[in-house]
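ok here's the first one, seq then struct tokens
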Amino acid sequence: MIVIEKALSTLGLIKSGTRLSPVHAGYNELLFDSSGGAITIYRIYGALRRFEGKQRERKLQDLERYLGTWNSRSGYYMTFIHEHSADGLQEQIKSSHDPMRATMRRIKMPSAEHMLNSREEMLDGKLHYENLYLVLHTTTAVLPAKERDPKKAKKWGFPVGQGGNHFTKLHDMHAMYETQMEGALDQLSIQYYKLNARDGASLIGSMWKRRKIRPEGIRLVGDHITAFAESVAYRKTSTGYAPIFNLQDMAYPSLSEQLFDDKIYFPAERDDFCQIGGNYQASLKMVQAPGGGSVKPYNDLRKRLSADTNYRLSIQLASGSNATATLAVKRIMALMLAATNTQNLEIAKSIEELDGLQENGVSVSGVRIMCATWARDTQTLERNVDKLHGAFQFWGGQSGGGARLVSITDNPEEGVAATLPGAIMKGPMTFMPIGIISEILPIEMTTSPWAQGLIMRSGADQAYPLDPGDNALLDFHVYVLIGGTGKGKSVTMTELIKACLFRGGLEGLPHVRYLDVGYTSKALFTYLRYMLPEARRHEIVHYTIQNTPAYALNLFDTPLGMREPPPQELSFMADTVGSFLSGGAGAGMANSILRKLGSLVVKEAYRLFSDTGRMARTYYHPDKYPELVEAIKHHGIEVISGKTLWYHIGDALFDVGEIRMASIAQRHASPTLPDLLGVISSSTSIQEAFKDQEVEGTGILNYAVTTLQSMIESFPALSGATQLDIETAKMIGIDMQDVANSSEETNLFYMILQNVLSRGFMTDPDEISRLNMPDQYREYHRKRIRELRSADKLFAFDELHRLSVGLDNSAPPPRAMMLLMRWIKEVRKYGIRLLLSTQSMDHMPPEIKGEGMWSLFFCMGVDAIPAQEKLVELFDISEYGQHVLTQLNGPIPGKGAPCLFLANTKFGMIEQDLYIVTSAFELWAAPTKASNLELMQEAISKIGDPILTARALTNMFPKGSAESELRRLMDQEDKTTNQAKAIIVNRVIEKAENLRLSQPDE
């Protein structure tokens, strides 16, 4: 030690912190105290559901029953530690968003990081960071005296190891303690995670030093020992237990020496502050507990403390402290000391009252509460201390002012250490009924069950990571989104897709299919497409389809190389055509015959149009695909118009690696809806089977031809070779606004698009050997199916209420809805995630409503009371959730779109009031309103850089919309809509240029 430090130590202004460590060693999931006691740390995510009213009373009663039975034997400690800080928020946001940033870089979309940057800037200073831990500590006091004395333990053959005594019996008792506690947490619907010893030690060190201690830098008992030795560290012998190895020789220094090596300084002007690692810290202890019959929940205390008040509160319960003998001894001691301190007389009276409660069957337990706070300067620390004093004064309900804290002035650093996991607090206990303890424990604090994900904002202004694709939490993935007009549903849809698209760990661009009726999908997909390098922009496409030949989508296309579709898709096509034919025939025999005809027509079409069929299509010059013609010429593929089959051209292109061009060539080979007319007239088997059948007095074949002709005329977009370039796209967005003019049209396009866009998603690799295709394609499809199985896949269906508007509830659901109902039950085995969005729960599939086939639920708000009541019944929403439902009135400036969030997890139900946040930059990057989208696209076309365009628009319109300026230009300056847009676009171009010049390196 240097001379200055020696002098400071002599004056009492500096001391070493190693003796303060509550832990001495660690092994697997256990930490040990210096005498060999076992410690387990749980991270508590809070109650999965928040409760009010009768539901809350029942949960507290469950907790009280557990606490009443647990407190029976000395030597066990249960400590709840709630930490509320500002300095942990940036680390939480970083750990949440950094995996998403890594994904963005891996999938070659690094510029999308601007979305996260803008979100973080928006949330800066508005959120706080909280963590809740439960620490179980079994001390050697649970053992008989002869076993816990080191000398006697050695004599009787009980093993000794680093960190003191290593007691097998103690570990067995601790394991039983853990099992009991975990069972109680499960019963209370509280989610938890057990920390391993290295993470637990890292947590303790970080709390003490107020800086990150990386777990990998910590050395534990057994770090140099084989995995086998770790699992059987002690072997039973005839005289007891013998260590397989010598822990003292093998292990690293104790944790106290590794973690508590900071010098502690004491400011000369304060006796209640200390400085540890650059932070000033103070500690306080509770000398008067909340009580008096009107104790307030712990959340009421939290609300009294501002987001920037750093504090750590530890509430410790000690087993055995409710014994009558314990209270009697404490009462006698208090009476003996009453002459020295009037407070001791009050303690004696209180113990008498508690003794009377116990006689009446009311469980009583001892509790110690301590608090620590920290800051970078003494002024802020003093403010924190004052705030804590004030908050505790009003926590409780006693006439004397509720709970009371006093600052620790003799050894403030020991008080700080006493709030760390594994510490056993010193000083007298406060005795109180179990019912009061159950109220003051912080179990109702809720935090996100996801360690990482896209940051949202909880109702308590906490950072709330959201990772919908996490398989560790959810058994299946069906996300339900309900919200009336203007409630923020479109923004939420966009945020959920981004959360799935950029989730941490993805190796490539996920497969996303988004069926929409409106602008939401177009805005998002247009922006994301710009994020890709130009050579890869075909991987993200969006179409606003119309019922015209230019947007043709052929129902009968097959996967690359296949001459007919897989059985499941073939069945869908046959059923669809059968439905076309029987649509007006009603029920009965005619309906059945027409469906049979439709099935046969489809099968015959693939036979006749295959490369061995007599109706096979041959080459012609495709004007709309000059790149296809160029690829044929470039690779020297010999073609003869009217003779060379399109299937063979596709095969040749495939052989030279032109996958996209081969897919386009195959479009020209596939049969189309008009081709079915020729199939009916030329197929001998069809003519023979149905020539004598009639429907409503008309020959069935004539009836079928007339029906198909009507379909062809009504739906030109379904009647030609596919024009949409989707074969090699990974993300496909379709806006059906122009083909959703009637219930019939909406259902038809929903159904066909769902099938077309999911080709290959539900094919089994084992089927490939049996499918009709040239052998050269089989390995390609096996590999593709394997990749699809392992890839992230999301199907998003927006505006589902359009599928059943105007339909009789007693009538069978439309076929699009029936297909969706089947998907809900089957997609789990194919790893597909579904996102279903609608304005009304009435229009969700019955499986969602009746069978609980959902995993995440986002309710943005429904105004009608009957609709709210229906949601409460369907989702078993608590009284707390019912209150949240009444507060969902649309986006709140500066906070986001409020929603009630439910998660149907493996561990139980999560229920949380949540704000779906999005920054102004994100709103401009993916506008959900038509006028803003048009401005954005026009500006991008002139500026060229979507990031710069969004920045310029954000700078000019920080609320994320230019609608008010558009209206002002039109109303006050008498501009037309186009003139107003042109003025704004020119301003945006000028702003973008200024930004470019001011930051040339970006």
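and now the second one, same deal
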Amino acid sequence: MSKQKSQLTTFTLPAGDTESSASGDVIKKYLFHWPLFVLGVILFIILAFFYLQVTKPTYPILATLEFKGPTSSEGTVINKNGDNQQLDPISTPVIVENEIEVMQSKKLMYKVVNDLQLWATYKAKDGGVDLYKETPVKFSFVKAVGTIDGKGEKIEVILKDANSFTLLDNESGNKDYAYGSAIKSSFGTWKLTPTTNFNSFKGKTIDITVSDPDQVADDYQTRVKVELENKDAPFVNISTSDQVPSRGKDILNELMAQYKEDAMSSKNRDAQKAIDFITLRLDSLDRDLNIDERQIEQFKSAQSMTDINSQSQGFRDISQANIKANNEADVQLKILNDIEKTMNNPKNFGALPPTSAHLEDPSLMALYEKLTAVQLQKAQLLATTPETNPLFDPINQQLAALQKAFKDKITAMKASQVAIKEQIAKFQSGIQTGLKKIPEQDRLYTSMKRKQESKEKIYTFLLEKREQISLRYASTVSDSEIVDDAHAGKAKWPKPAIVYAIALLLGLASPIGLLYARESLNERISNRKQIEDAVNVPILGELSYQEDTTPIVVTQGRGKFAIGEQFRVLRTNLSHLHGNNEKGRVTLFTSSIGSEGKSFVSSNLSVTLAYASRKTIILEMDLRKPKISGIFNLSPEHPGISDYLVETHKDISKLIQPSGIPGLDVLGCGPIQPNPSELLEKNKLDELINTLKETYDDILIDSPPIHLVTDSYIIARTAGAVVYMIRQGHTLKDELEFINGVDEAKRFPKFTLVFNGIKRDSFNYGYGYTNSYYSSYNTNAVEEKDTFGSKIRTFLRRF
């Protein structure tokens, strides 16, 4: 068992005797060393005075830049129509992270340094004030030679009058020079020219330091910070600090101007490259298109083509017309053959030949009408006159002549129709030959046209793209915009009032620092003040360190009276914490790490509660590393909480063990389970606690450290109060921040602390250490007079 603790100061009595005694001890200790406080204050006030004399105030400088364009990690932009615009570098999205690196680059800072000539600094000899923008003369190189060393080249001049100055040189002697005259030095040829501020510095000495621009750029580059304020909003904060506010503002403003100029130049350069590339490609396509168009022209000329679709349609129309004409000729021939056959038939001699409305020849129709008229006349005469009558001779002659003429006309028309058919057949043959050639012509023409149209599309696209880029190039705007120009804040340091106040505090605190050097270097908590300063959680009590290894100290005799009384006070404070003396009070004991005394305190407090006639049970809820059973000499093999939670034992009464102390029972851990956190999440734990509340006045839960496992967080839902152990010389100070976080998160109900294992002498906790601690340093010394020096020496010996 660990050695344990007590001396209780309650959180409910801040003005009680214990607190008053501790405060009195601290005051006595400090008053004893009052000469050291006086010396410390005087020393630090003097140091503060000289610090203010030599320290130049530094001003924070801040500017804000906004990126207007879209941000992307890709090198492509998709416009609203979904067109890929890789050929348009002006529309490329801004990648803010990349731009931040550009703004922090050495290249830009080097330009800023050269443009502002920051490599040359001017200071007045009297006071050493930096004369940025107020310098009476301006240094400039006529010709730089070699490099400048890291410390820079120092030039000291006296401004005699408006025409000349004196160059101070300890080696070669002082020389006078006219303004604007070239002066040769080891680092190059240079000159000085007066500025508008010259009259204010006439006759004064000016120190000029010329540094290497590379080193100056490196220095300013490290001082400039570029940060993205919010990843969702493209605002970039640019900050630096400078003892001369105007210089700091100029640096940031010039940096932003150089960045914008460089970005615009880069964008325009990329745009010009794109335009040049597109123009070159357009020239190549233009030549190819000319060649393709000539080939198409030659092909059409050779094939006698105008438009292949119209030409093929024409051939089809002519072919249809020929077919129609041939059919009409066939009809005419059939009609003529029928008429001729009728007239040549002996049976039909003298009969009127048949005719047709389809006969198209007017002369034939005229003959037919005459023939019809003569035959009609003959038929009328036959009705009254015999056929042998001489009157029929002229009619028969006329009729014969008309019939002969009619037959001759039919023969001539037949010959004409046959000739027409032959001509149509010959012409149709040519048309068919032309139609057979059209598919091949169409294939060749389509192939040539496809190549020409493909190149023409590319040509048109590139032509439009070049115009778009040219228009953007002519009206290019920056992707960034200055939201806030560089502005300087108020100098926060050094401020005389604050410096002297700090000096006073340091003068008073230095003796305290000396006295508590060991404590300050100690990473572990050594006194209550450290706890109270770091956390807002009330302290339930303090328990002093116990040399004895007996785990249950309150059961011992008179030698343990003090520690027993401390636990009784803790019992009283716990009662006040719960606010009542009713049954079923549940108190959870935990800590940050192991060996902080939670098992010791919970077990001894349970004994004091039992002695106060409160029926008490202590739960060994550290299911990973149980200790309570060992403290009360109980068997760890006995079924316990884990058995109940896994429901292998449902009768709680069979799990509870008597501790050997009247009124105090123990509910052990039971077998170690592989999943204690999951078991504690079950509702069975709530059932267990609720059942115990019906029987017991106080239920004390010994739980695992919360900085190692989450079990205590889970169990806390069943507790009415949580007591958190801090052990002097063991608990790390870093744990106080963790405790504060637990308190702010409201993870525990009625959250209090117990400061355990206090060793007062070892940790200077109180005032009783002084005489015995320092006496050994001067046992053989002669008694000294009570002087200021002797007090100092006494203080040093006692330290």
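notes on #2: Confidence is low (pLDDT under 50) at residues 1-16, 73-85, 766-788. The radius of gyration is 59 Å.
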